[in-house]
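Key idea: predict the complex, not the pieces.
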Amino acid sequence: MSRRMISLVALVWLPSWSSDVQVPLKSDSLRFAVVGDTGTGGRQAIEIGSQLAKAREKFPFEFVVMMGDNMYGGESARDYEKKFERPFKPLLDAGIKFYAALGNHDEANQRFYKLFNMNGQRFYTFKPRAGIRFFALDSNYMDRQQLEWLERELRSSGSEWKICFFHHPPYSSGERHGPSLNLRAVLEPLFIKHDVSVVLTGHEHFYERIKPQKGIYYFIVGSSAKLRADGIRPKSEITVKGYDADRAFALMEIAGENLSFQTITRTGKMIDSGVLPRLKAGTEPTIITKPSSTASTQRR
Amino acid sequence: MVKLMIPLFTIAACLAGAALAAAADTLPKADPFPKKELDDHIAAYMKVRKQAIKAAPPLKPKAEPEAIEAHKLALAQAIRDARKEAKQGDVFTPAIQASITRIVASETKGKSGAPAKAATKQGNPAIEGPAKPVVLKVNQPYPKDEPLSTVPPSILLRLPELPKELSFRFVGRHLILHDETAGIIVDFMLNVTK
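Result:
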């Protein structure tokens, strides 16, 4: 097998999150959670927060990344409490850090909110482990300043795992929004040039794992409170797994050259999981999957 | 003699001008953006803003929600007080409006401009927001329930850069200059997109 013929072997589907944890839980790994479009303050957001706290008992993640639309509607002090602090109280009480990106429903002032850890910046980077760096971007306003910053930071990061997260998905099978092609045109060349490994986004109110695009993994986790039922275009050629029947979040673990993940609904049902080897951005991997994890979209 | 030379000179100059114009048509056209004019107006606003921010309680990079809200409201009020006479077109003068409209039109037209045009609708309050329309008025607070539009990178890369406190945003077919922290409309221009 040539070097470029990289095999991706997905794990088998497992019946229920509550019954078992399928991620490796290695001692030296980095574990984190992914939520998106959480800011309703509604019952479903609270249920997702509660399920995340439950998940952490078995999968002790260190932090949560937020894909934007952290607060819908007003952003008074009371709204911060209602739409973020209350749903995620168990995690906040446990000292779990949240790192937010801005969505189109978010005021830029959220960058000053201490619990979002943005330090007053619309875009920022952090390195939770040697060899792993996250880049939070503001996809609402991708101007020259931000693109130059991103290029500079990617070039100098020196990390093997470069994970970008932001609101608008460059690839999507969403019937309402679809892919942000204009954004893709400016970001994808940088991602390839600087070997970005994973891109996490929201905006579309469903879960979608996209087939690797030019050696980069794309996830949409935009249904952690809002849901667009039947929002995924059927028979999309880029979907590995789509789920638009309930709210969801993702758990991820990076250990060495592998990223393991599980996607869980607010009722605790596991809807996707797998182990993804780090690819070389710009390459087209050959994907080998078990029959049970072939492309599928689950709808109502 | 002098009388004869003047018309001859004029004709020669016209011919040369026409030749230059013809040659120029074959070259890529640079954006004749009145950048200095915009920079001057932005600088004037930022000067007012710098004074206004002194009236607001300080805001740290890691703040409580109460502090964020207090800062925003006080800053917006102080800016409004200092810009009581401000009116539409103070920043977006006719020349600037014409240039921005031209850039937006060229980036959103045809098949190649379709992704950018689609992006101007993402988060656009006239399309994705609640039913009530955004009132376009200088110094007006941007409605708290409304999303903020995406501005396509292809357009941003052709427009002059703004200070980080300000942004261009679409509201329906119109464009506003938005103060990101104070949450107010600094200026606006109509019918930028088709």
